[in-house]
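Please decode residue identities from the backbone states below.
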């Protein structure tokens, strides 16, 4: 069995979050439908809130976010 290293919790900040799942159906099965295919994420270092179209759509702890989503720091050019 291959074990993945446990990533550090997502640090405080704003991020563009992308699902690792490649299809909408896979995102539904994983419970990530609200974030698929991407969403803006705001982290306080312990808890993350995901936003789409200006509304909060889901929340999780920062460790879960770091382990289950592809994370990029949000820049002024990035959009939801």
């Amino acid at each position: 069995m291959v074990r993945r290293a446990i990533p550090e919790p997502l640090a405080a900040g704003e991020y563009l979050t992308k699902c690792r799942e490649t299809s909408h159906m896979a995102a539904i099965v994983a419970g990530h439908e609200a974030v698929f295919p991407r969403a803006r994420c705001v982290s306080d270092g312990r808890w993350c809130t995901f936003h789409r179209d200006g509304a909060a759509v889901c929340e999780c702890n920062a460790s879960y976010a770091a382990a289950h989503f592809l994370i990029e720091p949000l820049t002024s050019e990035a959009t939801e």
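Observation: The two ends are 37 Å apart (CA to CA).
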